[in-house]
Amino acid sequence: MKKEKGFTLIELMIVVAIIGILAAIAIPRFAALIDKAREAGARGNLGAIRSAIAIYYGDTKGYWPHSLDTQAYTVGTGASKEYLPAFITRYLSRVPYATLKRSVANSRNNTVATISTGPEAEIATTSCDLDTGGWIYSPNSGDCRINHQGTDTSVLTDPGSTMLYCNYGHEEP
């Protein structure tokens, strides 16, 4: 009698079931890694913006950028009038994106909300009152934050964590 080559239907079904189980375990983990990578990119971009703001502050002898855009400004009048260069193109080539986890609204945005008048200028950058995604900037203090109140993926690994995107870089030790 000739021996048949190949797999039986049962053997194939077992292999398919094993692959299905592995996929069910691996795919959610990969999805979480994608969100963590997006958040790491947002932290890196926030660091780049803050570094550029600090360099601007040093170059302009103590002036924070008026806004994070391509507009140049002057301050003072008469003989004390000073030219302040545009922030974008000289200190950053463009405003980077704040890329957050995919499950939150406005998860990829590079708009900058500038809050520059009254006591709200400081409050907004600590509570992310606008919550529109992108960045929020206060020229009164030079503080820049992610403009979103969503919690990051650390909640998945540490259920007691409540790290908000707008608090990146302001973590308590």
From TrEMBL:
TM region(s), chain numbering: 7-27
Record PROSITE patterns: PROKAR_NTER_METHYL (PS00409)
- Top-level taxon of origin: Bacteria
| Localization per record | Membrane
What membrane topology does the UniProt entry give?
Answer: Single-pass membrane protein
- What are the entry keywords? Membrane, Methylation, Transmembrane, Transmembrane helix
Establish whether keyword Transmembrane helix is in the entry. yes
| Any one GO BP annotation for this protein | protein secretion by the type II secretion system
GO cellular component terms?
Answer: membrane; type II protein secretion system complex
Q: Which InterPro entries match?
A: Bac_GSPG_pilin (IPR000983), N_methyl_site (IPR012902), Pilin-like (IPR045584)
Protein name as it appears in the record = Type II secretion system protein GspG C-terminal domain-containing protein
Q: Which organism is it from?
A: Candidatus Desantisbacteria bacterium CG2_30_40_21
